[in-house]
Amino acid sequence: MKLIVELIIRAFILLLTTYLVPGFHIQSYTSALIVAIVLAILNVLLKPLLLLLTLPLTILTLGLFTFVINAILLLIAANIVKGFTIDSFMTAIIASIVITLLSAVINAFL
């Protein structure tokens, strides 16, 4: 049950990001839910490997490179899910920052 609630919250954050970041497009609520599921899978399978491979760069940038890794994961999800597009890499970086901030705010309230 907790997993379903977290996925719905993540989908809500993605939809909110659609309104805040120009160039970040999700066509429907169903697409947002599918993107949330795909991102959850990518975060479990691919993100630890990317963090390990880029550890020196992440340490050098004091952790800011994780936004680039999140942007890469967003772009991968955009290639997988129909109804989800990102116009550019810079848009993906801005969206990853916004998603991180919104997640932190929502998690603080919950």
Write a structural description:
With 110 residues, this protein is mainly α. It has one domain (2-109). The protein has helices at 2-20, 29-45, 47-53, 55-60, 65-80, 89-109; strands spanning 24-26, 84-86. A two-stranded antiparallel sheet has the order 1-2. α5 packs across α6. The longest helix has 21 residues, at 89-109. The protein starts with a helix and ends with a helix. The model has no long low-confidence stretch (mean pLDDT 94).
Q: Key features?
A:
single chain, 110 residues, mainly alpha, two-stranded antiparallel sheet, 6 helices, globular
Looking at the structure, what is the overall shape?
A: globular
Note the run of SSEs as H and E: HEHHHHEH
**Beta-strand residue percentage:** 5-15%
Number of domains: 1
- The class by helix and strand makeup works out as mainly alpha
Helix content: over 70%
DSSP summary: helix tally: 6
Number of strands: 2
What is the rounded Rg?
14 Å
Distance between the termini: 15 Å
Strand order of the largest sheet: 1-2
Low-confidence stretches: none
